Amino acid sequence: MATITGPLSGDAKDTVVDALQGALVDLIDLSLVAKQAHWNLVGAHFRPIHLQLDELTDLARAHMDTIAERAVAIGANPDGRVATVSKSTKLPQPEGGWLEDGKVVARITDTLDGISKRMYERIRATDDADPVTQDLLIAVAQEIDKQHWMFQAQR
Amino acid sequence: MATITGPLSGDAKDTVVDALQGALVDLIDLSLVAKQAHWNLVGAHFRPIHLQLDELTDLARAHMDTIAERAVAIGANPDGRVATVSKSTKLPQPEGGWLEDGKVVARITDTLDGISKRMYERIRATDDADPVTQDLLIAVAQEIDKQHWMFQAQR
Amino acid sequence: MATITGPLSGDAKDTVVDALQGALVDLIDLSLVAKQAHWNLVGAHFRPIHLQLDELTDLARAHMDTIAERAVAIGANPDGRVATVSKSTKLPQPEGGWLEDGKVVARITDTLDGISKRMYERIRATDDADPVTQDLLIAVAQEIDKQHWMFQAQR
Amino acid sequence: MATITGPLSGDAKDTVVDALQGALVDLIDLSLVAKQAHWNLVGAHFRPIHLQLDELTDLARAHMDTIAERAVAIGANPDGRVATVSKSTKLPQPEGGWLEDGKVVARITDTLDGISKRMYERIRATDDADPVTQDLLIAVAQEIDKQHWMFQAQR
Amino acid sequence: MATITGPLSGDAKDTVVDALQGALVDLIDLSLVAKQAHWNLVGAHFRPIHLQLDELTDLARAHMDTIAERAVAIGANPDGRVATVSKSTKLPQPEGGWLEDGKVVARITDTLDGISKRMYERIRATDDADPVTQDLLIAVAQEIDKQHWMFQAQR
Amino acid sequence: MATITGPLSGDAKDTVVDALQGALVDLIDLSLVAKQAHWNLVGAHFRPIHLQLDELTDLARAHMDTIAERAVAIGANPDGRVATVSKSTKLPQPEGGWLEDGKVVARITDTLDGISKRMYERIRATDDADPVTQDLLIAVAQEIDKQHWMFQAQR
Amino acid sequence: MATITGPLSGDAKDTVVDALQGALVDLIDLSLVAKQAHWNLVGAHFRPIHLQLDELTDLARAHMDTIAERAVAIGANPDGRVATVSKSTKLPQPEGGWLEDGKVVARITDTLDGISKRMYERIRATDDADPVTQDLLIAVAQEIDKQHWMFQAQR
Amino acid sequence: MATITGPLSGDAKDTVVDALQGALVDLIDLSLVAKQAHWNLVGAHFRPIHLQLDELTDLARAHMDTIAERAVAIGANPDGRVATVSKSTKLPQPEGGWLEDGKVVARITDTLDGISKRMYERIRATDDADPVTQDLLIAVAQEIDKQHWMFQAQR
Amino acid sequence: MATITGPLSGDAKDTVVDALQGALVDLIDLSLVAKQAHWNLVGAHFRPIHLQLDELTDLARAHMDTIAERAVAIGANPDGRVATVSKSTKLPQPEGGWLEDGKVVARITDTLDGISKRMYERIRATDDADPVTQDLLIAVAQEIDKQHWMFQAQR
Amino acid sequence: MATITGPLSGDAKDTVVDALQGALVDLIDLSLVAKQAHWNLVGAHFRPIHLQLDELTDLARAHMDTIAERAVAIGANPDGRVATVSKSTKLPQPEGGWLEDGKVVARITDTLDGISKRMYERIRATDDADPVTQDLLIAVAQEIDKQHWMFQAQR
Amino acid sequence: MATITGPLSGDAKDTVVDALQGALVDLIDLSLVAKQAHWNLVGAHFRPIHLQLDELTDLARAHMDTIAERAVAIGANPDGRVATVSKSTKLPQPEGGWLEDGKVVARITDTLDGISKRMYERIRATDDADPVTQDLLIAVAQEIDKQHWMFQAQR
Amino acid sequence: MATITGPLSGDAKDTVVDALQGALVDLIDLSLVAKQAHWNLVGAHFRPIHLQLDELTDLARAHMDTIAERAVAIGANPDGRVATVSKSTKLPQPEGGWLEDGKVVARITDTLDGISKRMYERIRATDDADPVTQDLLIAVAQEIDKQHWMFQAQR
């Protein structure tokens, strides 16, 4: 069976694979968490937050693809299966039932803060190992930070 | 805190909520399973299957939204959190690592066959309870059956 | 003078005509009621509700056309004249003057709740008489229920 | 409760409000009258007139919005409720039932002639009071006159 | 050689296959009949009818695809070969040579009336057997009825 | 009844009419043959061939219109009725039932080879008679030859 | 001052320049004649003919540009000045005042018949001299013949 | 034969008709003059001026339509025939043959200056007679002045 | 060096230049003030106001161009340099640092009120001097008044 | 009142804030300087430079937004008020009055050269402090350098 | 291994293959020569010529594809490898380093003149052998001649 | 004659120019190699590979422009002439004649592997010298690696 080889090997490859797999889990779960809040939201600010959460899902979906495809391109297997994401996600999970708008804003702000911190660690970790991967992570961090500001601004 | 009321109540509502939550889990996991195969695929038929799997993800994402929003519209809370999906999914899970094209076609065919069967049960179950929900499930089944044929045709 | 004949006759046709004329009046007045609120709205939530009311008008205008054209297609005359709508509408009418955002949300929620109930009655009534008309009414009910949820969610 | 203030006051404002409310009623009822004919039309010239009546509805809907929003912008409440339109409309009302193409053309020609005359009165009335409102009314009159010519040309 | 299996079997499948094959022949021949008239039309109403006949061809082509693909999805072979259509079509055939506009309108009206009647029979026949197929047939019937009205209106 | 006169007469017109009617039958049946294969195809190369066959149908539909309209423009009646096409088609007909991908490629290659040969004869035949018709046939031949190469390349 | 040289010279160039200048005058005046009728048209068939005349103007404007630019490309000066067109046009001129729909159809049919005849002469004249110019004239003739048929069909 | 009546009569109508007919001749000849220069232009600044002249033609064509249609809408016959334009145009005519870029810029600047002056006279003349026509002429003058500046700036 | 001449001179030109330069400064600074608030905004209504402020910037940027280009077209030099705008702006300036949503709405409402008043003065001032400039100012005033209403409505 | 926190603190934050505020002032004033030249330009090369200056404004407007939003995302307040820009801009200011094309090209070349130099300093300064900000500055520098080349190339 | 057969054989095929291979080399090198000048251009006319050279590249790229694909369609192998193009190109090669605008215009004019001459030879050579290939070459020649004029016009 | 100066000088500039010229040759020849295979491809996987090779050409064409324009922006002359590319290319050259699909996939995989390795060297080489150039090379490498994976996956 064909396997894929890419431009990295050894420790550099291991470091990059860890960063990419971590980012992938963050982004897949972000897409699910944002949809969960998009659906179960209530409160006087329903409409603007409902729409903003969909932008967040779109962002997460677009970037999970570039991150996973970078993993394949360097010869590693991205793992986006539901059990993997469920076990390894670091995102605080939304409660079941209706979600009040103010609490959603606070919770998503915290969630994005955590993702941002992990992305910066990955950016540092991949600095020597692979500038191409680092560049993709920088692009993710920039949009996560922007969303973090916009949710935080309405707390 | 505001909660949502809708056009259904009692047993009818319970039946419909079950059907919608089941369909939601099927569709969310289908979007993840199709992406996993989209990324880890190898084999001489790589490109057409790679593209077709993305159509499957798009289909799953579009319908998970109409299904979950129907649940909210009848006053129930759709649950699309990763732990919920992980625990309750009935989809056969892809193995880790590289996935050969022939096996992917066979596995996705089986996966779609299972989803189709469950959708038909839900269509029957909601016949009396809610024609609006039934109509949404019929639309899902039609597209799942079509994808099932097209994967099956290339086995 | 030419008149139109269609696939229905007798009681089935009468039942379907009643359902379609009732739905037409609901949708025409919904388009006017939503515009009245769109224009006279005030309050801190002005902008999201102002935009959402225009979506409601668009929805009402799109469906009034399919409903009226179904009536003609079965050989009946839809009546959308202003005097007819004014006399037969069942929608609670907005007061004159400025309309506060919170009250608009509550009032539109009730208005959509009433339309939804009448649409379900029409769906049941046309079940035997004409599955084509029923299908159009189901499509209307699905979107009315969705708007009902979204207005209700921000009360 | 917030109310809106605008650039006009006193007699000037009264004059402009009257002109705008009159134009609003003309345009809302024109949209309903044109749709009524669009649906109930019969005759050998069905298709071109059917399409042209929809252009008329589009024109009426687009301008009713700019007219009503000008009213709000100067601090007045546009009244587009069905009872108001029904009571105050000056448009000749279509009969119920099928409408023959030749008669529709004649009737719409007369209807547009009446609207044009009232728009010119409003243009004169607002000349001193508000050049911004006058400019919006001139734009309406130009399109009404153009439609008047095109219906008249096929009598 | 691969064959396709689908969600139906036994009598239900036979019933649905008959309905789909009948609808397919109706739609393929409708696309040819409408083109024949589109090309050979003469008369003072040439242009609007010429354009409307092309809409009819577009409608027939779009629906023949969903109908034939539903047949494959349930594991049957749609037969759209020219000999099959020629032998089994129930559409009245246009004469050779120039076709006068009034006669075309009358003939197409009758043709659509026949297709509509057969579609309603198929809707009834598939009610128990397959709600997914039925839903596709309802969509066809709705558009056929609408075209039937619009041709009939100009007789 | 109006009939159409055009720029040709006598033998030149007869020659051109024959060429156009022959091309019309080729193209109409090509559109049906390609659809039949598009629907009943099976095999590991399903997806790329399924898509390519739809391009073939689009090509055939676009050119049948220019060919038939050229016939009318020179005052002749194109005959695209199903019985005419069935009787006069020179295309090898697909068997009923499932069609294996390799056989479809071979069969379509042969079919396009035959159409190409007949188009070249028509191009020669119309050289003196009508350069306008010849130009349309050259455009058809160019696209048929291109499709012929692309099917042949994957045998 | 720069002048333009091109691929032709001597008699060949003279022949081609004559053909192009003649075609240019035909097309410029066709655009004016069609607009004159578009504006001054009256009669029960007003709308379809009004729209069709605009298609004719668009066609004339598009082709006058390719024709004039071919003249420049072979080093000649196209002359599209109003005095030149006025003096050299061979198109029958519309009368002043209102133009009845039936007469417009008859007159435009004759006008297009004349242009077609002259285009065929130019196609023959340029056969040896310049196949590139001939190809542009063939494209003009094809569209003129098509419009000629469509106006003629509604006489 | 139908004739068109509009909102004006007597002296007011005569004044407005004169203004519209004058503007129409200006705009039709501007479209021809700009094309003549577009085609026969030579010089180092060829490309930007060649493109700008096409913008001028587009502008002239768009406004000639609104101006002529306003004439019809008030019940008058716009006269855009080539002989009328040739006799009554006030535009300086381009010489035959190649046109140097610098001279074209100077000549078009003068041409636009003349049109602008006549448009301002027409704006003054229609001030009392018809504010709708005046508004259309103001829109023409604004764009003519803008083009005048842009040609003048590059002298 | 080339300078530009236009249709105005003397006092009329001076009056119009003053009006245009004043409007230009208003619009440039409005674009900067709206962006400043767009960026530094905080509060529970962040998202709808953030988006609305960008519409305001778009509006200001579009109109500053038509206003400045009118100035050039009449032969004057618009001055949009930062020092000029800074010295001559009449807009209340936002404070540095974070800007609360409620205060932003109040401040922008006042800012638009001031701009509207100055635009009406300019409309009056240019009435005799230049109807073309007046027409551009009327278009600005209409949109400023509309934005003024929509910000005021949410106070 | 809410304030925004972001991923940076201490010296790193101060360094990044300085770089972003400096870039913001450069870009805002570039947008104003380019518009000033766009409007007041004269000379034989008017049109291509006039258009290129608008591209420069578009570039400056697009990047000022990403730069200012990055500042907010790290918890700082971008200051784009006119007084701030006027005081702190380092761009050479255009003179009042008409601007000759050659001088504009020279002046804009110098202006872009200065901005480029400052952007490279900011890229170096943020290298350790924040790779995300650095990436945004790199994107600005790349487009500024490209514009610098294209203006310089035509000196 | 599959090889491709097409409609030609013997001398006719050899003639056509030579013409196509010659045209292919011309067009590939034209795309490279135009890009080389697009990048290294300097001079006061930089921008319009820079843009026009990109149009030339686009034209060359579009036609090289139709030419090469015609070669394959007749069963021959187009050779577009860099060594082949380098050895067999007949285009005068640009010098290295900066290229002045006036010299670029002159050189490209000569280059296009040469290509045009060779295309006319190919058009003559393929006249008997293959009208389909000839038609593609005519389309190339028409666009090359047009570009030749437009470069020549600005010398 | 104007020459271009940019932000770099000395060794840094030399290093960057080498990297850019090397990347330019890689990308130009990649566009030619991919087209050669696109045209001469045969085999059962023809269609997906034929399409994928065109994506590769598009990618190469888009990036060759940004790379060459960066060279000019730093004041160097990119050399994309066919002789230069032919002499300095490091890409393995395709054989003449038909190219089997499996061999094409293997050969393109190796070709992309080589380009990727050289791009990583250039990314390292430009790290200190010019972060802007490095960023463009990183973007190239990311897409080359992605294409490398996708060709490799189907070996």
TrEMBL record, chains A, B, C, D, E, F, G, H, I, J, K, L:
PANTHER family: DNA PROTECTION DURING STARVATION PROTEIN 1, GENERAL STRESS PROTEIN 20U. GO terms for molecular function: ferric iron binding; oxidoreductase activity, acting on metal ions. It comes from Nonomuraea zeae. Residues 18-154 form the Ferritin/DPS domain. InterPro entries: DPS_DNA-bd (IPR002177), DPS_DNA-bd_CS (IPR023188), Ferritin-like (IPR012347), Ferritin-like_SF (IPR009078), Ferritin_DPS_dom (IPR008331). CDD domains: DPS (cd01043). Belongs to the Dps family. SUPFAM superfamilies: Ferritin-like. This is DNA starvation/stationary phase protection protein.
